Batch of 4 targets.
Target 1
Amino acid sequence: MIERLRMPVSEADLHALADVLTDAVESGAAVSFLSLTRADAESWWRKLFSSPASGAIILVARDAAGIVGSVQLHPSWAPNQPHRADVVKLIVHRRARRQGIGRQLMQALEREAEAAGFRLLVLDSKRGDAGERLYRALGWTVVGTIPSFALDTDGKTPHDTVVFYKELPVKAPA
């Protein structure tokens, strides 16, 4: 089940999100962290939740055991880009991968973005990663590849990043 996370977030959801993020980093996912303790992950989520003025939309995927995935949409901060948002941190716990959850999260996020009035979404992905294949399959357009953009979770090995965008339909006035 995919749902929009509402504030305030319960402690149980905070702990589950920290577990998903920690698992992603431990499995080598390129989600901005080199290493991450559970306490660090909880702190990171708490900081994100403490700034609701950002207008971020956070979706989660749940199964019978709890939260197994998440993705975020962050509106552009720039005054001349009210139509644009960044998609960040599509993460799915290893126990729930290869079940279409990433695809469901992205499709739901695109619907949320369109309903919120965004017309242009931007994201990036580690080249060769499952995310890159998913975004291509979902019709995202490749802008280009940036060599040695970030380090893998080993803190030593650089990897290339593929930048994508997707234009959403403009809704006609009602």
Target 2
Amino acid sequence: MLTSVATGSLAQSGKGTNAGRRIITLNVIAHAPEGTQVTKEDFDLYDGGAAQEIESFARLDSGSRLILLVDSSANLKVEAAALQKAMEAIINELYQDDQMMVVGYSETAEILEDMTPDLAKLQATPAKIIRKGSPSLFDALIAVADAFSNQASSGIEKRAIILISDGHDAESKTKFDEALRALQEGNIVLYTIQVPDRTRGALVRDKPKPPAAIEQLTVGTGGAIYPFEKATEAAKIISDDLRKNWYRLVYSPSGINTLNMRRLLLMSHRPNIQLRTKGSHPAKYHRPY
């Protein structure tokens, strides 16, 4: 399976050294048959068309830092009780060493519970959702990406957002490409529980249609999309990704100009091993239609 990524020299996932040697770290979600150990010998990495030596590739067994980001706007096409049930399903899949922040957003993003491992506090948050206003999704993504940047000193590498949304953005000052860039540069994986599109495919000026926004944000960060009606099953799959399938890949680019934007490829040698990583790191958003 091929996974493509474009990356730039200023990405936070890469760091320079005194000798000018650049190290890049990628999150990789690896799915393989039960009992199969995925190693760096199972795939090849290409950066800008040049084969790269993978310095290390290992599963991360540590806890995660998660943000549950919920569209609380008035006309989201989900009943309040169903929305709360989906939130509960996600919260109840947390492990002891995980921590979560819960944020609801309409015109503004509101923290319903700050980052905590306290399951009882998190379980109380679905009842705090107040449905009102119109959604500012891209502003909310920037806000939670900033919240994660404040967590950087914790040393926790597994950072993910679980978004419940249809992808509609009505009010944001933030542009789509700015939101995507913030997630990619923060090495944040976005999962989406996708609600039916309230706009019914209507054209939107200067931004992708809601389903396209969801697809680009999730694929662009190495995440995945699940339909809202399968939220309970999705919560378990996401939990498995975080606990069992999350790997760190480290390499130093060679044979390329790291000042340029370029494509990355992960090429699996085995059809039963599927690899996901962030799908793009564009300097500028280009309308895909």
Target 3
Amino acid sequence: MRVFAAVLFAAVLLVGCGGDSSAAQPAGSIKVTMTEFKFDPGAINAPSGKVVFFLVNAGTAAHNLIIRDSAGKRIAGSNLVSAGDSNVFTVDSIAAGTYTIFCDQPGHEGSGMKGTLTVT
């Protein structure tokens, strides 16, 4: 019985540590695939207001998506998404404008993991 309890406890811990890899893409969300070292698509268009991103990490390293305005100010940022996982990232309110998206993991932006978000 102790062995079964230990195995069950370990399984619960592993499930709790995982990402949302089995999560389906929410209706109306913008799918962004992250790999080394790019976003696909690299140029994203979205309406102003609430924007929902469905982030899929198809790479081998952890990535995130950070939104920065033209003055270099961080507007919003996703959680870190482990390799093979997905995550829903919601920005509750974003004004019209042109923004830079990038991964803030060391060396990723410098390696080309950046793009443009145009909000209308």
Target 4
Amino acid sequence: MIPAMEIAPPFGYKEIVPLSRAQKVRLLRPGELPAFTRELNSIPISYTEFALIAREYPIVFASQAGSGVYGPVAVLGMAVGENLYNQDGAWANGVYVPAYARRFPFCMAKVTIEKVEQQKRLICVEKSQLDESAGEALFGADGSPSDKWREIERLLIEYEADLERSREMCGILADYGLLEPFAMKATLNKGGGPLAMTGMHRIAEAKIEHLNASQLKNLVKKGILSRVYAHLLSLDNFGKLLDRRAARAA
């Protein structure tokens, strides 16, 4: 009897299954947006992406209500269902695409077998992207990985490790009391009423100077302090979002 296996898909994925070497997968075209991101106004980002993300997108910290668990996200739009980087199903030219979108339709997920969560994560694929006729083989007839698969696998493994570092960073920021809720309000010059975004958190910069020497040393040692300032500088990019929104309206 085959034991019951449960795999919880990550945000944006519908149904995922373990990847096998015999499967053919419909890969995204260069620059193509995964369907779930086309009306997404924020997307999770990872630890090593902060510098790249901060050049274009506002970085904020999001949390499920009452959970006390935070995660960094890049803001893509000023309203629910609005991705201002969606240009007819493709990501805007010349803009860094977050790894969360680039890894689709693959991910790494924890598996629950007979109600026991396994420690090791499996490489999985969005089931709807499996296609024997139009899909692409990622392994040879002898089971050897293609160069393309090696590149994808590297992204998945590095991204997964990066997520652990993100979780650690957010846990430390919350523990040090550095996260505070904030809202963004703006009024468009033409054709529209006021905009308001809520549910976001940012670093309270004024609280950094009140950290003790040990806490400050820990932020520096773990590379968190540089990401704190990348986040704070990135908040100016809300202006870029407003410019994109105005250009789209025009």
